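Design a sequence for this backbone.
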């Protein structure tokens, strides 16, 4: 079950990271605030789900989840820092979304397969 949550959170955070490049705080501040609020809500929901499922996880799943989660968070922070680099084109935004989503999605897929 945590694997499905990881995949969903990875896709959501990857999409939000790509949208951050469109809704830049200097151009569309309201959109930026909405995206950051969605990000905070997604992380909070995932943390609550992890807290409920923590005791029932098989051995090694907790470390696997935390590794994928922290990697995605670091990459999300890098995508926020890229806002200062200026406007990016669509392929770059899509690449940012895929790169941010990849660690959590890969973790979720590995959990579902086991």
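Sequence:
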């Amino acid at each position: 079950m945590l694997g499905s949550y990881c995949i969903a959170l990875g896709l959501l955070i990857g999409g939000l990271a790509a949208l951050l490049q469109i809704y830049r705080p200097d151009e569309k501040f309201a959109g930026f605030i909405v995206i950051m609020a969605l990000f905070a809500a997604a992380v909070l929901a995932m943390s609550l789900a992890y807290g409920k499922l923590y005791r029932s996880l098989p051995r090694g799943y907790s470390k696997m989840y935390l590794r994928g989660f922290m990697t995605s968070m670091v990459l999300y922070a890098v995508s926020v820092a890229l806002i200062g680099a200026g406007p990016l084109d669509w392929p770059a935004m899509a690449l940012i979304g895929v790169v941010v989503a990849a660690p959590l999605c890969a973790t979720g897929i590995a959990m579902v397969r086991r």
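The chain has a mean pLDDT of 86.
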